[in-house]
Design brief:
Layout: H1 8-29, H2 38-48, H3 55-67, H4 75-92, E1 102-103, E2 106-107, H5 109-112, H6 115-134, H7 141-155, H8 160-170, H9 177-201, H10 208-235, H11 238-241, H12 247-250, H13 256-260, H14 262-278, H15 288-299
Helix pairs in contact: 1-4, 2-6, 3-4, 3-9, 3-15, 4-6, 4-9, 7-9, 8-9, 9-10, 10-14, 10-15, 14-15
């Protein structure tokens, strides 16, 4: 069960509100489908709207809630991190990367449109993310720069893009556990950590201890997220996952189950969940969304 102080219905209502709020804000920032070049803008909207768990934006909103930040001040960070995530999925699915044809239960962007349009859509989503942060109306200039720096580092060669490079280079090789963890700290963990940091930086002032605790929480759930992804790639069903089951084996990738064993991988994810929850003990009910997310990440089935 999720360890929360508030009624779970309150947390669920907040999550649903944030998901709807995010959809509305993304609709605002994404160019209209009828704007030239129409194919590109349609592909950007297809890749971003109407699906997905929205875990990263929820981490922005959840962190802000724990620190007492007005949701309006969190919208730019939430939108920006989701746009980066959407771009990464479009590029990851391309034939020259993971060559997937299913994402969120429907054809991947390059299947729905074509490879060139998908490539450009990913490029445009990435740049739009930083445009959104640059126009954060409630954030002082210094805070906007810090948000841009955080998201840029998490997205680039020292973060997600670097992790993808390590992932591609590792296909067909047997990695050690430290090597696999380093890969996923970059590929998955960096953007999840950035989501929490974006929530922190939207707050005018944060107690240094609270900053450290939230950052440590983010590192734990980032790794737990990837371990659960690896588990689901073994145990899940394509119709539930919304993407191809067993793709890690097909690409000869080292995973937590392949190195540790399935049971040990599940146990490690639970340990990370508990460690993440422990870091939130100084917060009251205001951090219940973060507690809910830590549990959801490990218990999710897709």
């Amino acid at each position: 069960m999720t360890q929360v102080d508030e009624p779970l219905s309150v947390v669920n209502a907040f999550v649903a509100h944030c998901q709807a709020r995010l959809e509305e804000k993304l609709q605002h920032w994404l160019p209209p489908a009828h704007t030239v070049p129409t194919d590109l803008h349609q592909a950007m909207r297809y890749a971003t709207l109407g699906g997905g768990k929205r875990v990263r934006p929820l981490l922005v909103y959840g962190t802000g809630r724990a620190l007492g930040v007005d949701p309006a001040g969190l919208d730019p960070g939430a939108c920006a991190v989701e746009l980066i995530h959407a771009y990464s999925l479009v590029h990851d699915d391309l034939p020259l990367m993971d060559d997937d044809d299913l994402r969120r239960g429907r054809p991947t962007c390059h299947k729905a449109f074509n490879e060139v349009t998908a490539l450009l859509a990913g490029d445009a989503l990435q740049t739009l993310a930083f445009y959104v942060l640059g126009h954060a109306p409630r954030a002082p200039h210094e805070d906007r720069l810090r948000m841009v720096e955080t998201l840029a580092l998490a997205s680039g060669s020292r973060g997600m893009a670097g992790g993808q490079a390590l992932d591609l280079a590792a296909e067909g090789k047997e990695l050690t556990l430290p090597e696999l963890e380093l890969l996923h700290i970059h590929k998955t963990g960096a953007l999840i950590r950035a989501s929490v940091l974006l929530g922190i930086y939207a707050c005018p002032w944060v107690d240094p201890e609270h900053h450290e605790r939230l950052d440590h929480y983010a590192k734990c759930i980032g790794l737990a997220f990837q371990i659960q992804d690896d588990v689901l790639n073994v145990e899940g069903e394509t119709t539930v996952l919304g993407k191809r089951q067993g793709s890690d084996v097909a690409h000869q990738k080292s995973t937590y189950p392949s190195i540790m064993g399935l049971s040990a991988a599940k146990e490690r994810a639970l340990e990370l969940q508990e460690e993440a929850l422990e870091r939130l003990t100084v917060f009251g009910a205001s951090a219940d969304v973060l507690r809910w997310l830590a549990t959801y990440i490990v218990q999710r089935r897709h």
